[in-house]
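For reproducibility, we list the full input for the nickel (II) ion complex.
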Amino acid sequence: MLSSIEHQGYYIQNESKPSSVAAELRAVMDERYKDDKFKKAGIGSGEAFTIDENVRNDSILWIENEPTNVLVKQYADFITDLLPQLNRYFFLPLKDKELMFAIYEPGSFYKKHRDRFEQNQHRFFTAVLYLTDWKEGDGGELLLYLPNETIKVTPKAGTFLIFQSELEHEVLPAVARRYSITGWITDIPIGLTFL
Ligand code: OGA
Ligand code: NI
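The corresponding predicted structure, in tokenized form, follows.
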């Protein structure tokens, strides 16, 4: 994983979770979505934060620091365990992570952007666990713009992707509802300001 990130800017693992685990994570998301816990996602951070549905129109729910669901906790711990590995390998001072559930209803997208931007230089890596029970035609693919090529990632349940947050990427319009846990690994402790 580390050398793949170093040489290609990203690492992808298909079937990182069995479909039963993905189904349970989807059920956790569905329940909270139904309870109206999700909100429209924004762009930028701090004072630059805005909601612009022409740029992105997914709905998100930040994951708490100590997830109550065992599977969510397991995934959060997996990401936490990546920190020291990334620090050693890339000589980085990474300190924390922030994770969210994201749901794209049919027709939702996220136009080309970077996760590490002017006003927020603290995100170093973007990690996504895709959870959609995806079939051809369901849309919602991620385009990752690498220096010499663009790769297309299918948001299929179980696929795990990690990439450098300064890389441009975009989410194509979803045709079927699209589920993921998306997160960032940062060089500052994440406060609970988003709660
Ligand atoms: C993001 C994002 C990618 C994806 O939330 O910033 O680009 O495939 N997500 O969900
Ligand atoms: Ni992004």
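The helical segments are 2-8, 19-34, 70-90. Residues 113, 115, 126, 169 surround nickel (II) ion (ligand 2) (CB under 6 Å). Both points were considered when choosing residues for closer inspection.
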